[in-house]
Amino acid sequence: MNALETQETISHKEAILKVLPVLAERREQTETARSVAPESIAALREAGLTRLITPVRHGGYGASLRAQIYACSEAARVCPASGWVLMVGGAHNWILGSFSDKCRTEIFGSDPEVLVAGTLAPQGQFKKTEGGWLLSGRWQFCSGVDHSPWLLIGASRAEESDGGPASLHAMVLRDEVEVDDTWYTLGMRGSGSKDVVLDEVFVPAHRAEPTGKLFDGLSPHALDHDESGNYMVPVLCSLGTQLAGCVLGMAREMRNMFVDKTRVRSDIYSGQGSGAKARRGTMQRRLAESSAEITSAELLIGRNCDLFDAIAIAKEPVDAQAHSQMRWQASYAAELCRRAVERLYAAAGAHATYDGSPMQQYYRDVIMATHHAAVDLDGCSEVEGMTMLGIEPGRR
């Protein structure tokens, strides 16, 4: 049993195991199409995994974030892009739990198994208008946009706006945006994280929330439909940990591939036959060190999940120290997985460099995934160090 397996997560294990063969079978199709295979999305929906952390009132399980992270990690192990889109869509469904009941009913009412796509960074702008907001701009990295009728996007207040918060997050109909296929990337190709373009798209007031309270777990709607404080976990702490869970699944599979290949690899230039590489101390050390890093990452993710559970029980706002700690632990877990994969790939041999090699894909996907701002190692480490030293953020 690993750090993500509890009685609750194991209760979803049958559904997860059922869907894994479907995702694995279509991994190459997903990679080639640069979008998760429709059959994979259908399997995730049918298994109920798309509504793990959707509010119970709106047809979801209202499960813990640990359950979501466990499911995404297992999915990413057999198909990185499928696990990623499940993570992003599920995270947005969870954030939607802190929107108004009117908004939640509009989104989930006709389809509780919907996966909400989107991009949280406030890359575009909004202006206040009668009854709501007008959103304009270009948003990059809209993961899963091919598979959702709704998008959750962030925007900053335009200078010419007559009032409004500094930034907000809004639910937008996919039919009202232009999708620009810019997704030609080093890794995570199957996630289909294309650009979306909005030109003064109207969003009614009930479909938007100020970013500050929403991201800090302080939305006035966070407790009006749920007996726990599950929706009081800060968004960036949750998102970073969910992302790290996906990377953990990829790193685990990379380690499994390395073991399987190394056990039978010959040492060509020394003339030694099958299994010669496995007898080398250098290979053994690489594997042992990388495995320890992957295990350490799992423990850090599990520690964050423990903190999430405590927040849900206490129903109390999170202080700056806890916020910093959770973000740091998520980012360092992702970094440990990246280091492990780098070390293994460096010794994987020339055959691992071909496009058809799964090891090459997993290596690229981990490198790409750990570029996400939610697990920015430099930023998170600086804030954690300042917090530990009692230095106020923004001051030197």
Tell me about this structure.
The chain has 396 residues and is of the alpha+beta class. It folds into three domains: 7-111, Acyl-CoA dehydrogenase/oxidase, N-terminal domain (Butyryl-Coa Dehydrogenase, subunit A, domain 1), CATH 1.10.540; 117-209, Butyryl-CoA Dehydrogenase, subunit A, domain 2 (Beta Barrel), CATH 2.40.110.10; 233-389, Butyryl-CoA Dehydrogenase, subunit A, domain 3, CATH 1.20.140. Helices cover 49% and strands 14% of the residues. The chain has 13 helices and seven strands. It has helices at 7-11, 13-25, 27-33, 38-46, 65-78, 80-96, 101-108, 211-215, 235-264, 281-314, 320-346, 358-369, 377-389, and strands spanning 117-129, 132-142, 150-157, 167-173, 178-180, 194-204, 208-210. The protein has a seven-stranded mixed beta sheet with strand order 5-6-2-1-3-4-7. Helix 2 (13-25) packs parallel to helix 5. The longest helix has 34 residues, at 281-314. The chain is globular and about 80 Å long. The mean pLDDT is 94.
Summarize the structure.
The protein has helices spanning 7-11, 13-25, 27-33, 38-46, 65-78, 80-96, 101-108, 211-215, 235-264, 281-314, 320-346, 358-369, 377-389, and strands at 117-129, 132-142, 150-157, 167-173, 178-180, 194-204, 208-210. With 396 residues, it is of the alpha+beta class.
Q: What level of helicity do the residues show?
A: 40-55%
Shape: globular
Number of DSSP E strands:
7
Give the class from helix and strand content and strand pairing: alpha+beta
